[in-house]
Design a protein that fits this description.
Strand content: under 5%
Number of strands: 3
Number of helices: 11
Radius of gyration: 18 Å
Order of helices and strands: HHEEEHHHHHHHHH
Largest sheet: 3 strands, antiparallel
Shape: globular
Oligomer: single chain
Length: about 260
């Protein structure tokens, strides 16, 4: 839990010098993020989800591809490792930001996991021991999300709208940080990305943070609820647009349960 506390306090510094969080607020957000990604259990630190062609590792279930694999989704784990390399974090001798997932298939992965192979265990312990750095990466990613989104927008009015809605979710009317709002933005950015990657689209339509902010109902006074309802709509659109072979409908229930935590 100290790793998550470090993470939230760092995030507060990155986002704004005025953001101040109590330990209770930090614990609240941290527990929700890790529960969403891995049920808060160590056994999910190195995982391969059903129906996916890549592994999900770390507290943020960062996507990691095997050698030669390509996907429309952003491969995040190499970014995490690169972030750690800049901070001279000790890691297994075989691991660096250019290293591909060591297992070429889901069956190979689970065989190594079941056997507790040396490489698998080194990866597990590395992830277990570097939670603060993983958390720092997530904080850094969220801190960069708003300028990253704004840099993709040419229309000044659209740019102002995205900034306004980001702030409405993050801050209370008195300018203080809304702890649930901070959790919402952090969790969704880690969950479905910033929405700026053109490959993360089906039929030209995305589902990331940018798209959710743009489609929020301005008449909904509860901004976290407005965000959650918009996110449901964007993910519903994703499912509708997705290739049938992916069978993404099976994820709808779980996604909606997660989004309900944003305001209920």
């Amino acid at each position: 839990m100290r790793a998550f506390l470090f993470f939230i306090l760092l995030l507060s510094t990155l986002l704004s010098s005025e953001i101040k969080l109590t330990k209770d607020q930090a614990n609240y957000i941290a527990q929700k993020v890790w529960k969403n990604e891995g049920a808060g259990l160590d056994k999910y630190l190195v995982h391969w989800n059903k129906g996916e062609d890549f592994a999900s590792v770390g507290i943020g279930h960062f996507i990691w591809f095997s050698k030669g694999h390509t996907e429309r989704f952003r491969e995040v784990f190499p970014m995490v490792v690169a972030f750690m390399e800049k901070r001279d974090v000790k890691m297994p001798s075989w691991l660096n930001s250019k290293t591909a997932l060591p297992w070429n298939s889901k069956s190979e992965f689970y065989a190594a996991k079941k056997a507790k192979s040396k490489q698998y265990m080194e990866l597990f312990h590395f992830l277990k021991n570097t939670m603060p750095y993983q958390a720092e990466f997530m904080a850094d990613r969220l801190a960069k999300a708003l300028p990253q989104m704004l840099n993709t927008i040419d229309d000044p009015r659209r740019k102002a709208l995205v900034k306004k809605r980001f702030d409405e979710v993050l801050y209370n009317r008195d300018g203080s940080v809304n702890e649930r709002g901070l959790y919402v933005l952090l969790d969704y950015t880690n969950f479905k990305g910033e929405g700026t990657l053109k490959s993360e689209r089906y039929k030209g339509q995305g589902w990331g943070l940018l798209q959710v902010l743009e489609h929020m109902d301005p008449n909904e006074m509860n901004k976290q609820k407005a965000f959650a309802l918009s996110a449901k709509a964007m993910l519903s659109r994703r499912i509708k647009n997705s290739p049938k072979a992916r069978g993404e409908e099976r994820w709808r229930k779980g996604w909606n349960i997660r989004l309900n935590t944003y305001w209920k």
